[in-house]
Write a structure and sequence with these properties.
heterodimer, A: mainly alpha, 16 helices, B: alpha/beta, Rossmann fold, six-stranded mixed sheet, four-stranded antiparallel sheet, 32% helix, 29% strand
């Protein structure tokens, strides 16, 4: 199979028809696995790491979606992640409105902001787009750092959450065992939703715009709004990750907005494979466990991550997820296509 | 017969370079028209002008008799003019079916739908879930035509559709284009393959150095003169 055909097999999904039975089976199995895992994994350290990995995986999914569906690389997704945190933290600090409202705003406001920004910046392709996202992300980071009276500056501050959120005891969001399940369900629902989205007209149009914007325009499509919508959807997913992170840690700081977090999310997406919807999430899990392992071995663990990124990029251009799919295809030569 | 596409004294080109000099042409409803000319005389620039890729410097482009103040990429599609560009431009990471569905960007009423295209090109049904770029050249041309038909165009413009195709496939293409024309779709064929032109078109414009140097009915054009117009 040629590289292009292989990429297509990884990326495309048959459109129009209702999801196949296997899709529902995978969804049910994934949800069940998430519910069972905390029962099986008894180590609090391991479950804490898994919770962080899943939240990181959601952020990586946001970055990966933008690459997969719009061909755009963001260096600034920490902005949406961090803004979500501050949208929960600041109203709670100043007693502006109930925390439940803040949580809705924490997801909605970064999404709206991304859509409005997207209408301008998605017109600019390639590296320039990446640099703009970096600049926007760093602008928010700088503001959080310098506006000490509002944001607590570099120190950040603890979020004073009520005893219950939407009738659920707040401690549920802060215990690794239960937060893992919440984050896992969020990740699975996001991936399933994106899987369905790729099968719609919107999914086809955005894929066509990514591949050949001029051709899509000749066919009669406006191309800016769909790309801005993909950017906004990607920001929404990043904001969900930020919301979960803020609820779990009950703490915000400018680190949540820093470009290094955007960079880590991008590394997770690349390591996992951006041709697959679930690749970046897999990359997130691999990233966190590898970081933990490398951190035990040496204090220079970032160098090991950098080295791993180089190896993966060269040896596995479709990422670990892509390599797994390839392996499965080789083991089952008569098998059907693999769905993203 | 109402005019679908019209050029009035069109001057157009790229940057500072002018390629078309005072072009007048018209394609009416259900007409089959060919634009003939050697390489580099400006045939594709005619298409690029009404697609807004080449810059219109003087004159007027009309869709359905209405002068266009601003030519955007999508103006033609929305006016019912679908274009099959040279090189086919199949979207690589989409299947045949997905490529076809993309063609329905402009939802004009009409008979063409996925089933209709599959009936016209049965091979596309067989390969519906195959990546579009995994098809042969001839099949890709069918896919490009099928995708254009999904918009139910009043006028189908084909830029060098026979390019790179085996003679037997070109014969098939001629049959398909005749069927489309018989079904009421207007055709504007930009082509150097004189065999295809003779089998499909009823009227022609011959271009040389960005100007129309001859026009008329194909039936009145001798084979020698036709070959002269399209000689490379």
């Amino acid at each position: 199979m040629s590289r292009q055909a292989e990429s297509s097999a990884l990326a495309a999904a048959p459109p129009g028809a209702a999801p196949a039975r296997w899709t529902w089976s995978v969804l049910a199995a994934a949800l069940a696995a998430g519910a069972l895992l905390p029962q099986v994994v008894t180590s609090t350290l391991a479950i804490t790491l898994l919770t962080q990995a899943v939240i990181g995986g959601i952020l990586a999914t946001a970055v990966g979606l933008l690459i997969r569906q719009a061909g755009l690389v963001s260096f600034g997704h920490a902005a949406f992640f961090g803004l979500a945190g501050y949208f929960i933290a600041l109203p709670a600090r100043h007693g502006l409105w109930p925390a439940e409202v803040s949580i809705v705003l924490a997801v909605a406001a970064p999404t709206l902001l991304a859509f409005l920004l997207g209408l301008v910046i998605v017109r600019i392709p390639g590296v320039a787009f990446s640099m703009l996202t970096l600049a926007i992300g760093q602008a928010f980071h700088e503001f959080a750092l310098r506006a000490r009276e509002i944001t607590g500056g570099e120190d950040g501050f603890a979020i004073s959450l009520p005893r219950a959120l939407y009738g659920v005891p707040t401690e549920i969001f802060q215990r690794p065992q239960s937060m893992f399940v919440i984050a896992w369900v969020a990740l699975v629902v996001i991936l399933f939703g994106l899987h369905l989205l790729t099968r719609t007209r919107f999914g086809r149009v955005t894929a066509a715009i990514r591949e050949n914007e001029e051709r899509a325009r000749f066919l009669g499509y406006q191309t800016v709004v769909p790309r801005a919508l993909v950017f906004a959807l990607s920001a929404l997913i990043g904001a969900v990750a930020g919301t979960l992170f803020a609820l779990y840690n009950a703490f915000v700081s400018p680190e949540m907005l820093h470009w290094s977090l955007s960079g880590s999310a991008l590394i997770m997406a690349i390591v996992g494979g951006t041709k697959l919807l679930w690749g970046p999430a897999l990359g997130g899990v691999v990233f966190f466990f590898f970081k933990d392992l490398a951190g035990d071995l040496t204090e220079h663990w970032p160098a090991m991550i950098g080295l791993t990124l180089i190896v993966v990029t060269v040896a596995l251009p479709l990422g670990i997820g892509g390599a797994l799919v390839r392996l499965l295809q080789r083991l089952r030569p008569a098998g059907g296509r693999t769905h993203g | 017969m109402s005019e679908l596409l019209g050029f009035r004294a069109v001057e157009a080109g790229y940057g500072e370079a002018r390629v078309l000099h005072g072009i007048d042409l018209a394609v009416g409803e259900n007409e089959r028209v060919a634009i003939l000319g050697r390489n580099g005389v400006g045939k594709s620039t005619v298409v690029n002008t009404f697609l807004g890729v080449a810059r219109l410097r003087a004159g007027e482009v009309r869709f359905r008799g209405a002068p266009q103040r601003s030519l955007q990429h999508f103006t033609a599609a929305r006016a019912g003019v679908a274009v099959v560009l040279q090189g086919r431009h199949i979207i690589p990471n989409l299947t045949v079916r997905e490529n076809l569905l993309l063609g329905a960007a402009v939802r004009r009423p009409g008979a063409w739908n996925l089933e209709g295209v599959f009936e016209l090109f049965p091979v596309l049904r067989e390969r519906a879930d195959t990546p579009g770029t995994a098809l042969s050249g001839g099949q890709q041309q069918m896919l490009a035509i099928g995708r254009a038909l999904m918009a139910n165009p009043a006028l189908l413009v084909l830029d060098e559709p026979s390019e790179g195709l085996a003679p037997v496939i070109v014969d098939e293409l001629a049959v398909v284009l005749r069927r489309l024309a018989d079904g009421g779709t207007g055709l504007l064929l930009i082509e150097q393959n004189f065999g295809l032109v003779r089998r499909v078109a009823e009227r022609y414009y011959a271009l040389s150095k960005g100007q129309i140097v001859d026009q008329g009915r194909l039936a009145d054009l001798s084979l020698a003169k036709l070959k002269e117009h399209v000689a490379v």
